[in-house]
Each structure stands twice: as C-alpha cells, then as structure tokens.
Amino acid sequence: MGWSQHTLVGFLTLNNTRGIMSIHRCRGLGGNLAERGWNVYALDFSGAGLSPPWIDRTNGDHNTQTSRITEDLPSTLDFLLQKYDSVNIVAHSWGAVLFNAFLARHPEFIDKVNSCVYFGAKRRLQGRSVRKFITIDLFWKRLAYLLARPCGYLPMKRLARLHNESLGMHHGSATWMKSAKWVDVIDGFDYGEALKEHSLPPTLYFGLPSDLTADVRRFMLESHSQYFEGRPREIALLQNPKNTEVDVNGGKYKYMQLPSLYDHWSWLNACEAPHYALVDDWLATHNQQEEY
Predict the structure, then answer these.
(1) pLDDT tens digits, residue range 32-78?
(2) What is the pLDDT of residues 235-265, one digit of tens each?
(3) Which of 86, 95, 215, 257 could form a Cys-Cys staple with 91, CB 3.0–4.6 A?
(4) What pTM was estimated for this model as a whole?
C-alpha cells in the first residue's frame, strides 16, 4: 500500500466518452491527463459508448435518469473504491448534473471524492441563444418526443451520430431543464433540498461566453446553496460575465471562463489546450488518496 500523487480521474458525460478519452490517438482532456501521469477511467453510462446493451425499441423504456443516479454511478464508485481510497471526478455538461444528484442521494460517497472539475455544467436552461433555441427548445423539448414515440426510444445514432437515448432518460432530462425544482421524476426525491444538508467536494467550474454562462452559475448556486444560508462554506460566483476567474475564501469552489474560441465540445477534444494545465493543477492540489 503506497501513496500516489496522480491516482485516479473519472470522466462522466451524458453521451459516450470517446471525444474526451481516446485510446487510438492523442485526443481530448482524458488522454492529456493520462500523459501527465494520472490514471484515467472513462465511464460510459449503460447503453452509451461501449457499454451494452445498447438502447433500441426492445429496452427503450428502461435505462432512466434515475437508474443512472441510483445504479450506474453507485456501482462505478464501488468498483473504483475497491482499488483506490478516493477519487477525483471530471464531468461534462449533464454528466455533472447527474454526479451532483448522485452525491445528494448518496452523501456517504462525498468524503470519497477529493475534488471535481465540471465543464459546461447546467441543469435548468433559461439562457437564450440561437443554438440553444434549435438544439434544446425546438429539438430536445419538442421534436424529440415526436421522434421517440414511434420508435420507443430516441434514435440519436441516426440523427447525430450519438448513442440512442431512452424515453426515460429523455423525459427526465427535459423535465429538469425547464423545472425550477430539482426533483426526481420517478420517485420524487428532492435533490435540491438534500444538497442543503451537505457540502460537496471542492469543485472547479468551467464556462464559456457562448455556452449559457448564467445557467452554469445557476447550477453552482443550487448545488452549493449552503453558502447562501449563512453557513461557513466557500463558493465561487460569476459576479461579472467579463471575469475570467472568480473564487471566494480560498477557492474551494471556483468558476473560470474560457476564451470564446472553444464551444461546448471542442474545449475537451483538443490534444492540448491551455486549460488542461489548470485542470491538472486543480486535481493535484486537492488530491489526497491511498492506492491499494
């Protein structure tokens, strides 16, 4: 049993992780961190990427958002914690929403997570942009329901070369995107209320000017609401859209805004990018674990 500085990074994203971590060539933040000495694990949720059974009309009503929170993530953390004393998590977009929901529902895992890094993490989408109107308001919240009904699932592989999505996952995410309350659509568990009772691990949030920055900020606020109820917690707030870095009281929770040359996906797909070093530094600063 010995101590290791660069022990583990786990990657979470709603779609498959091939763009973030590729074993075939230098591509993405995951591969970059692996070259920097981190042991990297990339998680594909059930039915996504390389994790069968893939979603089709025979199982499209299963594989819900709730099952990913209550089954996929607990089993993944249990597996990793058999080998490592604790973990670091890097998540993209809805993967971060699911992971914070998981910690709200399973707070016994909070102390096992050294730190988190979130890219474009947002739950309730209220920002306005042409891209958001087309992809979320028009497609995901409206047309997707019409496409999924005859198939029994959402055929994203044919439409956008992504993995197919289940009816349950689509309904859960679409509901959360427009709902003020963060409540499970199946059993009514209130994630927002649960998080008021717990302090999440140190978290670095990355946002983009073109990626609904206000929605990222909103997700930070509801995930770390203790700060606003008079409790001695540290959180970073985006007080000014022009700020590139903001932290409060030592930066346990920090927000950083990246240049507009990136978009929702490209900031994770490059072989090398300036913010990769920032991620490496954040993880190393908060990494304290023992490898078995």
Answers:
(1) 888 888 888 888 787 676 676 777 777 656 688 999 999 999 999 99
(2) 443 333 344 555 544 556 676 766 667 777 7
(3) 95
(4) 0.82
Residue 132: both structure tokens together = 């958001």
- Tokens matching residue 164: 């197919």
